[in-house]
Amino acid sequence: MLHFCLSIVLSFSILIFSGCKEHKDNKVTIDFSQKDITNYRINQDSANTFKVAISAMISPKRTFVYYQELLEYLSKKNNCKIFLEQRKTYQEVNALIESGEIDFAFICSGAYVELSSKCKIDIIAVPVMNGSSTYQAYIIANKKSKINCFEDFKGKSFAYTDLLSNSGRLYSQKRLMEIGYIDKHFFSSIVYSNAHDNSIRLVNNGIVDGATVDGLIYNYIQSHNPEEISNIKIIEKSEKYAIPPIVSRTDKKKKLEKIRNSILQMADDKEGAAILSKLMIDRFVVGYDSSYKTIRNIRNIVNK
Question: Domain end: 188, 209, 241, which one?
Fold first, then answer.
């Protein structure tokens, strides 16, 4: 049986500026004070119990729906209990991994690069989507705007996903450096949406002028909920980056051996393949740290 421990959940209704908090440098953050899914207390010590976290690349309600079947499948295949934890920020999920409080996690590429600089991390697997284990950042704007290139965002409002996000922040910071700016001197205001689909919704509804988002998530929404991007145009796409991985702390390797094998073999199993198809994933394959060199270089440049 799969149990879910959802620690922080974002209400979809909080996508208006009255639901945001102002911070220094004209930055605002979506309010996560409302919780609407039950929390479960769990036994963290059982050898047959696994705790998994998923960085909020998509909003918590969507994460629950998208990953529920996958985690239930792994639970059944390994005759174990899997508990899902979520946190508002990528850094909070990284902290859970670093401290050993969770066994494995689905995290973004930028968060992986940050985490691997602090502790020993193994890549359990990476997804192959549409034949590739890469993705792109998309810079988007509302169709009704006169924004046609990145430079047109000067003096406009802009949405980031998370401080550690590659496609949701680092890429746009790299672009700003290329044209001789930093964000607080370029954008009129900055929103931290805490999830790529939230950023997409902010742009689609005309609440902010633009955003930088994960192309995989944009493409998924385009395929399954096209009305949610009906008012959006893509201004530019980044180079290709190594796809977000599933990771664990190195000392969890032995405990996770069967889980890892189940993940890597999902596409060869009828039930597993059907679940992956819903997520637009071809299969999971072995991943390598060296694939994240480009993102690591961007992080180092931006954080100087």
Answer: 241
**What are the start-end ranges of the E strands in 91-228?**
104-106, 121-128, 134-135, 137-142, 157-160, 189-192, 210-214
**pTM of the prediction?**
0.83
Domain boundary among 215, 241, 267: 241
- The per-residue pLDDT for 303 is 86
Q: What is the pLDDT of residue 40?
A: 37
Question: If DSSP codes are grouped into helix, strand and coil, which group holds residue 13?
Answer: coil
How do residues 201-231 score in pLDDT, each as one tens digit? 999 999 999 999 999 999 999 999 999 999 9
The mean of the pLDDT values for the chain is 85
Structural domain containing residue 75: 3-16+33-133+244-302
CA–CA separation, 60 vs 260, rounded Å? 24
By DSSP bridging, strand 246-249 and strand 104-106 are antiparallel
| 3 state SS for 245-261 | CEEEEHHHCCCCHHHHH
What is the dihedral sign for C-alpha 73, 77, 80, 85? negative
Q: Which of 195, 177, 208, 215 is nearest to 302 (CA)?
A: 177
Distance separating alpha carbons of residues 176 and 185, to the nearest angstrom: 10
Same domain, 89 and 200: no
